[in-house]
Write a structure and sequence with these properties.
Elements (H helix, E strand, L loop, with lengths): L1 H7 L24 E7 L1 H6 L3 E4 L5 E4 L10 E4 L13 E7 L6 E3 L2 E9 H6 L1 E5 L6 E5 L8 E4 L14 E8 L4 H10 L12
Parallel strand pairs: 1-5, 7-11
Antiparallel strand pairs: 2-3, 4-5, 6-7, 8-9, 10-11
Length: 199
Amino acid sequence: GDIFDGLFGGGGGARPGAGPRPQQAPPPKGVNIAYEHLVSFTDAATLAPQRITLRDGKTVEFKLSKGVVAGQQIRIPGKGQPGPGGNGDAMVTLKIGKHPHLVRDGDHIRIDLPISLKEAVNGGKVKVPTVDGPVMLTVPPRTNSGATLRIKGRGFTTKAGERGDQLVTLMIHLPSDAAQLAKLGECLADEAVRADMGV
């Protein structure tokens, strides 16, 4: 009777000392596959969609996260090796390329922009490269070399979803023609530009 009670649940339930039946672990997933992906400076700043070719030859698209930095990893689910419990993931480590003129400074972007002496003296509008394309920047009259102007919202995308700024440092570029420089030197009067240094 005890045997039949144990088999069919009779006799007042489970026998003393009988524990829960152990559960089997889920079958393991396949191994993750590591990739490296070079993101252009412009794409990283604007969070442009990216495409990567996997080992099987297929191409997949993925998005960059806000506040993206070099060395960050992006997980693409199900694009790793197959396994009993499903495919592993693709783990993409990001590299960020350099720009010929722009430099990242946190969430901001910096650029040293050459301007002519005439533009520095008279002021005016100059074209400035940005990650969103060229924009026109107003240079105030009598601007000294090294002055920095700000272009709002042309930097990298922050973790909060906002854009940093672009900081433009103006660098006066003298004429390369020797005759022009000599003529210019004759027209300019000497000025005590270092008087505040005591020299």
